[in-house]
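Severity: low
Component: inverse-folding endpoint
Summary: output formatting inconsistent between runs
Steps to reproduce: submit the following structure tokens with default settings.
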């Protein structure tokens, strides 16, 4: 009797213990049964099927060097997956799934390491068997007279798909897969919230944190479950089972015998329902899409949008987003268009003469939201173009009816919107410019060589031999030249460190896959060196910093960082292991810091205690003191901030990221340079014309960092109870002046609150460091002496008092 079974399935989430009788047939899988991951042509024991054979549970060979423990439609040629146990980690051949004699469902790899287990808690009840049901639900059950009690079921832990009779309870989520063929967690998730609202969110990968919502059912307070009923309807229900909001058309097909049904939250962020006619043998979408226009739905927040950075979204068939690169750009990963695009040319250098080397690629009715940094009204298109050409920071402009918006690099949230009346103008280098990407030229040469080789190989056996010999000779010559070039590069930079090839670092980082962090000009990846490449035989882990923006300034910053850090040797500085400078590939290899950066501990959930923070402040000061006063070549770091203070295995502070460093020649105490550093930590003299830059800019930045270490909050925060607390430096001085420095540690542990004398001393040191007049700031040597108690700390003046008296 189908109706009673369905009625009980709908009531299932309302029960604390899922116990019910099945009228549908099933095959019991007995305790002690197991499956082995192996190709199908080698064994028939890689899965358990449902009684009808419609569904299978077991190991599915993905064809990508691994198996997925999954449930799939077994009578469909493409083996459509509806559930998987551990999608982020494929398992190797020989892995075993076992229903143990104790009733545990456990997945072990071929080395007997546990990969996954079905987690459930019961009292006085044990699993007696498992079953793959014809609904597509896999269960672990206990026998109870003529019925069975379900202790665990795959329907309660969905991945990206739901099936008829399945109910999503509050706080259950679907996570879209990364791509059509990559089953790991992707960029979007769907959540049935505890407040009754069904919400679609972007997902910040690779960390997996929740991003911005871009669609909701608007059922807050009234909704309860997401139901996929046996008629094929999908809706948000109230607690009493009443349908509140239909996500799809009612009753798309009532004939369950001739159709398969499924609803999937797909990799492009769209929730779609499909039916499969057993006569047509093809999946077809049968209802509206959620959301109706994905390109228009995601237009702000963290991340890049539906498509990746510098890519724009066009709505295609079935509301599927098509990601395109503007002219002059190419896809970062041709196999994953949602990864975004990168320029095939060198972006504009900040020189007036460079403006004539650029033109624009126009995209009608397109916008790039959330990338604005300047806007103008009452203009025309020619003025808008000129304004972008004259601004080397401008990557594109959007012009609409007299309004002009400048867009920064990388471009984000690009889409073509039929309702938008403007256009996007993407800045690209003219074809006749000499500053083009050497890698693209190289690819063209490689194709030419391939064609010539094929012609020769088609002539005769003798020519084949001659061709192969020539290729070998050319290869050896190129290899020697490459080694010579790398040596010359190391010599030109004036350092004695290892010069890696790009191929070596590409291999070490597994194709630059595991990202540790990123900034405006570079991304840092985790790598593992081979034994032959490893400089430290006891530690093969490295951090590889890859400069992403290929500009001349990038070359200067690369040389500055390598030159600066290669000349250093201090326990509170990150050690340089090597570098790569091949064509436009510029990479720096550091020792790996396992505990991340100081910012993670100051502003994240796992904060350091008071005495650990004091020690890190002293260690950072020691590192800066070394750079300023103990190096043979004095170094101004220029970008001291918590993100650039890394922590080693002993939680010792190690200063990193010398990309903006300035080296001072012997007997030189100051220099002039363009504004650099990070907003919030930049000393005020950067913004005053004709004022030379000294090591005191690092002292100012250290003072801001010291205040952050004291208070465990950022230098600028909008969401504060009192607007006077928004700017940390100003608030800290007010607290000191009013003798209320305890306010700075009011949310801290008892150690800080019980050490107010030290808190006051550190605040005074920080205020001395952030004096707006550089000459009033102490040297880092004196700062260190104050921190260590060697020198008394006098009462500091108002940081802006000296400036105000001379204005």
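Observed output (run 2 of 3):
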């Amino acid at each position: 009797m189908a109706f009673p079974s369905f009625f009980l399935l709908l009531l299932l989430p309302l029960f604390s213990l899922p116990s019910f009788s099945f009228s549908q047939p099933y095959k019991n899988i007995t305790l002690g049964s197991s499956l082995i991951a192996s190709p199908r042509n080698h064994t028939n024991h890689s899965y358990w099927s449902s009684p009808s054979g419609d569904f299978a549970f077991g190991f599915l060979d993905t064809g990508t060097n691994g198996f997925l423990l999954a449930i799939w439609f077994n009578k469909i040629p493409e083996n459509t997956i509806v559930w998987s146990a551990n999608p982020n980690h494929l398992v190797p051949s020989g892995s075993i799934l076992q229903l143990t004699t104790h009733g545990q469902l456990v997945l072990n790899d071929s080395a007997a390491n546990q990969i996954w287990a079905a987690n459930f808690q019961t009292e006085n009840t044990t699993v007696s068997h498992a079953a793959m049901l014809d609904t597509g639900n896999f269960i672990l059950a206990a026998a109870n007279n003529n019925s069975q009690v379900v202790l665990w079921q795959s329907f309660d832990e969905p991945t990206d798909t739901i099936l008829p009779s399945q109910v999503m309870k509050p706080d259950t989520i679907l996570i879209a897969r990364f791509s059509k063929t990559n089953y790991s967690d992707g960029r979007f998730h769907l959540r049935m919230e505890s407040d009754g609202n069904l919400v679609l969110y972007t997902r910040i990968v690779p960390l997996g944190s929740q991003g911005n919502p871009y669609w909701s059912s608007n059922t807050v307070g009234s909704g309860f479950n997401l139901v996929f009923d046996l008629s094929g309807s999908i809706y948000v229900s109230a607690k009493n089972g009443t349908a509140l909001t239909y996500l799809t058309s009612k009753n798309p097909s009532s004939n369950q015998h001739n159709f398969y049904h499924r609803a999937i939250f797909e990799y492009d962020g769209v929730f779609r329902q499909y039916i499969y006619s057993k006569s047509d043998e093809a999946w077809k979408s049968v209802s509206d899409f959620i959301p109706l226009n994905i390109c228009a739905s995601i237009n702000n927040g963290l991340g890049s949008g539906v498509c990746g950075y510098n890519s724009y979204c066009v709505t295609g068939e079935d509301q599927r987003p098509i990601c395109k690169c503007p002219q002059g750009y190419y896809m970062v990963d041709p196999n994953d268009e949602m990864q975004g695009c990168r320029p095939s040319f060198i972006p504009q250098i900040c020189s007036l003469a460079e403006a004539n080397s650029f033109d624009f690629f126009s995209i009608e009715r397109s916008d790039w939201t959330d990338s604005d940094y300047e806007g103008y009204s009452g203009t025309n298109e020619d003025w808008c173009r000129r304004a972008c050409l004259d601004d080397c920071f401008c990557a594109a402009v959007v012009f609409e009816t007299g309004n002009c918006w400048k867009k920064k690099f990388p471009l984000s949230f690009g889409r073509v919107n039929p309702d938008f009346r403007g256009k996007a103008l993407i800045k690209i280098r003219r074809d006749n410019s000499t500053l083009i990407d050497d890698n693209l030229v190289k690819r063209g040469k490689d194709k030419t060589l391939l064609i010539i080789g094929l012609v020769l190989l088609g002539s005769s056996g003798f020519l084949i031999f001659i061709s192969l010999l020539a290729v070998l000779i050319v290869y050896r010559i190129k290899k020697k030249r490459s080694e010579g070039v790398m040596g010359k590069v190391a010599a030109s930079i004036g350092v004695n460190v290892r010069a890696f090839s790009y191929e070596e670092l590409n291999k070490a980082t597994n194709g630059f896959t595991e990202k540790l962090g990123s900034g405006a000009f570079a991304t840092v990846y985790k790598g593992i060196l081979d034994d032959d490449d490893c400089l430290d035989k006891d530690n093969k882990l490295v951090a590889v910093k890859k400069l992403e923006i290929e500009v001349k300034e990038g070359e200067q910053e690369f040389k500055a960082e390598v030159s600066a850090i290669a000349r250093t040797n201090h326990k509170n500085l990150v050690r340089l292991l090597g570098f790569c400078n091949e064509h436009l590939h510029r990479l720096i290899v550091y020792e790996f810091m396992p505990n991340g950066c100081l910012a993670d501990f100051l502003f994240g959930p796992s904060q350091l205690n008071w005495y650990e923070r004091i020690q890190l402040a002293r260690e950072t000061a020691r590192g800066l003191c070394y750079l300023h006063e103990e190096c043979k070549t004095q170094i101004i770091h220029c970008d001291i901030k918590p993100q650039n203070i890394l922590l080693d295995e002993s939680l010792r502070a190690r200063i990193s990221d010398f990309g903006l460093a300035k080296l001072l020649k012997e007997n030189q105490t100051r220099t002039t340079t363009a504004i650099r550093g990070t907003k919030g930590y930049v000393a005020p003299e950067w913004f005053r014309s004709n004022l030379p830059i000294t090591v005191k800019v690092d002292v100012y930045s250290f003072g801001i960092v010291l205040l952050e270490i004291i208070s465990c909050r950022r230098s600028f925060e909008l969401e504060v109870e009192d607007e006077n607390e928004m700017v940390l430096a100003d608030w800290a001085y007010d607290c000191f002046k009013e003798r209320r420095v305890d306010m700075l540690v009011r949310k801290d542990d008892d150690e800080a609150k019980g050490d107010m004398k030290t808190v006051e001393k550190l605040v005074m040191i920080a205020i001395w460091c952030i004096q707006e007049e550089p000459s009033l700031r102490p040297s880092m040597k004196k700062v260190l002496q104050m921190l260590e108690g060697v020198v008394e700390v006098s009462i500091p003046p108002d940081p802006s008092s000296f400036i105000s008296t001379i204005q």
